[in-house]
Design brief:
This protein is an alpha/beta fold. Helices cover about 30% and strands about 15% of the residues. Helix 1 packs across helix 12 and helix 5 runs antiparallel to helix 8. It folds into two domains: about 250 residues, Rossmann fold (3-Layer(aba) Sandwich), CATH 3.40.50.150; about 120 residues, DNA Methylase, subunit A, domain 2 (DNA Methylase, Chain A, domain 2, Alpha-Beta Complex). The relative contact order is 0.15. It is built from twelve helices and twelve strands. The two termini are about 25 Å apart. Bound molecules: S-adenosylmethionine (SAM). One of its GO terms (biological process) is methylation. This is tRNA (cytosine(38)-C(5))-methyltransferase.
Length: about 400
């Protein structure tokens, strides 16, 4: 943007203001759901580096973004590995197993929580800390020790945060995927960054600015302790949340029909058909069956598309639409309903991964099988929800 500015010595000079893209790091990047989220938000950004140790996910990430994530285990990243990027914004979706029944609710003691614990350990030691953070996880994370530690670390560093449990269905998308999100923003610029930062770090408080800063930080720590003492009360469960929301109104949220996500050409694809033997093996269990006219689907997990038909995600009925059955007592009644899995493309659509109109769209290299695609998508997240939360923390605050 070009701007004419009158200076104090009364000469008009030409300023060139360049909008600086916000520099991001994506931890536990998978296939890049959070990267697509910041892309959809419209915020000017540069993804400096993504980190993930799953090479299938990294192949997809590289194929779609032209940038290969660092495959070093996050537990072993050094201060330099992170500081060198001078990132303003961190996007994180750490493994969810430590906070699930399947993972025995191991919380901080689960080895899969080590990556997150390590990052929280490094954060206060960095020369260049981020000003914005978004973290995604499963429901239950909000009651974990990991969450308490995360909040304490952020509070000590001067962050303000919002925590919420939200599902795409609240954004007009016919998919349930209730997830925990934390969005955090540094409360105000760290004055020590402007002054000599090391004075503050050794606790000498040698300058006026540093002592002011220390007082302000202890205030933030008190606020955080008070916040933590309120338990679950502080977690938002509705969207839009908070008085700061100016740009989004409830009226703008329009419920989108499921049929607009369905590709009927997939109805005859053999690899998507649910086999009769897998259906008949289930007794006294309810199948989750939807039709294109349905208003919602359930969460797609990484087991979707496998033999685990119950609880891994909705099956699509493609025939005899006048019949509604869940197969509880008689699974044989389901055999003529043309049950199929949603294709990876349809699941990606329900997660709002971009197919067009954006610089980066989700593409799978041909060597990634249908099952692997569904696995990776089952581990991923809803891009639209992330975009809305990022807009909230970057524009509305
Ligand atoms: C919940 S998934 C994140 C999915 C991602 N948000 C997406 O959109 O696909 C967690 C990811 O963390 C990766 N991961 C788990 N532990 C890790 C570690 N210690 N170091 C690096 N990556 C790790 C897994 O490979 C997986 O891709």
């Amino acid at each position: 943007m070009l701007k004419f500015v009158k200076t104090w010595w009364s000469i008009t000079i030409l300023h060139i203001e360049i909008e600086q893209p916000i520099v991001c790091l994506e931890f536990f990047s998978g296939i890049g759901g959070l990267h697509y989220g910041i892309q959809e938000s419209g915020i000017s950004y540069r993804m400096a580096m993504a980190f993930d140790m799953n090479e299938n996910a990294n192949d997809v990430y590289e194929y779609s973004f032209g940038q290969r994530p660092n495959n070093k285990a996050i537990d072993y990243l050094t201060i330099q590995d992170i500081d060198r990027h001078k990132a303003d914004c961190w996007l994180l979706s750490p493994p969810c197993q430590p906070y699930t029944r399947g993972g025995n609710y191991g919380d901080n003691d689960d080895p899969r929580a080590r990556g997150l614990m390590h990052i929280l350990d490094l954060l206060p030691q960095l020369q260049h800390r981020p000003s914005y953070i978004l973290l995604e996880n499963v429901m239950n994370f909000e009651t974990s020790q990991s969450r308490n530690l995360l909040i304490k670390v952020l509070g000590k560093l001067g962050f303000k945060f919002y925590e919420c449990l939200l599902s795409p269905i609240q954004f007009g998308i016919p998919n349930n995927r209730l997830r925990y999100f934390l969005i955090a923003r540094l409360r105000r610029p760290d004055p020590c960054i402007l002054e000599n930062k090391s004075n503050c770090q050794v606790g000498l408080n040698t300058t006026h600015i540093c002592s002011e800063h220390t007082m302000w930080l202890s205030e933030n720590i008190k606020l955080t302790e008070n916040y933590l003492s309120q338990g679950k009360e502080v977690i938002y469960t509705e969207w839009p949340f908070g008085p700061a929301v100016k740009t989004i109104t409830v009226k703008e949220i329009i419920q989108r029909p499921l049929y607009s996500y369905v590709d009927t050409n997939q109805n005859t694809v053999l690899t998507l058909q649910v086999s009769a033997s897998d259906i008949l093996r289930r007794r006294r269990l309810e199948f989750d069956i939807v039709q294109p006219s349905s208003t919602q689907t359930s969460t797609f997990t990484k087991a979707y598309g496998s033999k685990h038909l119950i609880g891994s995600g909705s099956l699509l009925q493609t025939q005899q639409m006048d019949i509604t059955e869940n197969g509880f007592n008689a699974p044989e009644k389901l055999l003529n309903l043309g049950l199929r899995f949603f294709s990876p493309k349809e699941v990606a659509r329900l997660h709002h991964f971009p197919e067009k109109d954006f610089k980066h769209t989700l593409k799978f290299p041909s060597r990634i099988t249908q099952r692997q695609q569904l696995q990776l998508l089952g581990n991923s997240l809803n891009v639209h929800v992330v975009a809305q939360l990022l807009k909230h923390i970057l524009f509305c605050e």
